[in-house]
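Input (Aspartyl/glutamyl-tRNA(Asn/Gln) amidotransferase subunit B):
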Amino acid sequence: MTQYETVIGLEVHVELKTRSKIFCDSTAEFGNEPNTHVCPVCMGLPGVLPVVNKNVVEYAIRAALALNCRIASFSKFDRKNYYYPDMPKNYQISQYDLPIAEHGYLNIEVNGETRRIGITRLHMEEDTGKLVHQGNITTTPFSLVDYNRAGVPLIEIVSEPDLRSPEEAYEYLNKLKAIIQYTGVSDCKMEEGSLRCDANVSVRPAGSKEFGTKTEIKNMNSFKALQKALTYEVERQIEVVEDGGRIIQETRTWDEGKGVTLSMRSKEYAHDYRYLPDPDLVPMVIDREWVEDIKRSLPELPDDRKERYVSEFGLPAYDAMVLTNTKELADYFEACVAAYSNPKAVSNWVMGDLSRLLNANNTDITSCPIKPEQLAAMLQLLEKGTISGKIAKTVFEEMFASGKDAETIVKEKGLVQISDEGAIAAIVDDVIAKNQKSVEDFRAGKDRALGFLVGQVMKASRGKANPELVNKLLKERLS
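Output:
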């Protein structure tokens, strides 16, 4: 493997979160019955004319600025001609030689190393319809077509071939998704097709400057699928080259069940699409003041927010990176800190117990039953000594399950921490009397015996005894 270098470039399609489609006023909303979100324009019926949705252009500029792209002063739409059942017009309105944005970049971090990945271009286009297959795309006996998605606005973000491993491709896609979500132009839900990714991958001898023959992998429905598909394809290509074979430029699909890529068709070239300027859409002259207005309206982006969490909140870089990975999680964290001014304590609970419960329940922070002010109130009870750390975990799980406040749960279940020294002393004396063997072990230098005795006291108090007092009283009596 070290004799070869992997070269990967990604083409990411992002559906924009506009009310209507890119060239007509049909709703761009996801879902509903097949072929109900359509009109003569997006169905390509004779005699209709497209009109550009200005909101789409604004969103494209917004995303491009967040990705450090240069915004074109002059841009136009083109017709990309090809026949496929999901294309009602037999051409797709896209952009070819004069896209709205070019020459951007984003930074990724893999194995502690930061790398800058170039973005070749960002352009606007209309989405196609959706083919609904009966089974696998390569084996289906028939397919149905739903045109609800036809005409939904897309931006396509094409990276430079700067990625050198499946892991880097995964991090790039994750970072790109976060930036786009922060701008608010798309929800990037892969399960709904709002974010889709095609990958171009090739291998070449280590140290070579020339690119090898690439293949394009389509139909990947998750970040993990992308990483697994690329890993397999790199190994496949190396094996072909090692056996004296030749890589064929083609489009391949990822079969999740078999864990392999499968050949679909030979790879098309740009000239195969016979691009031509769309005669129904006038070219666009982009006003610079409009671009500057959009730039000023951009929110704080992930990298800036991460740096602020380190400098302002004193968080470790790792915590800051995890918390800013999605805008929703970062907003939740900051709402907690606004109500409870111990950022590290909040970070520990959000990244630990809260993340565990969200994952176990297959949900995310937007559907979290524990509101930020509720988590803050529980941490205040913990700080005051009203509940112990162990009780806090029990309370937290009940909060997640029921949505109730911590104080309500503590009262209902009688979980107030015992901090009365006299009450704890009585339990400690009883435990010592019943566990003389452990007492002798401790006095003989076996420190582990103290942990056992602490556990017995906590058990006898049903976890409500103040742990610090328990340790203090046990040590006093045993010494």
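Residues 223-242 form the longest helix (20 residues).
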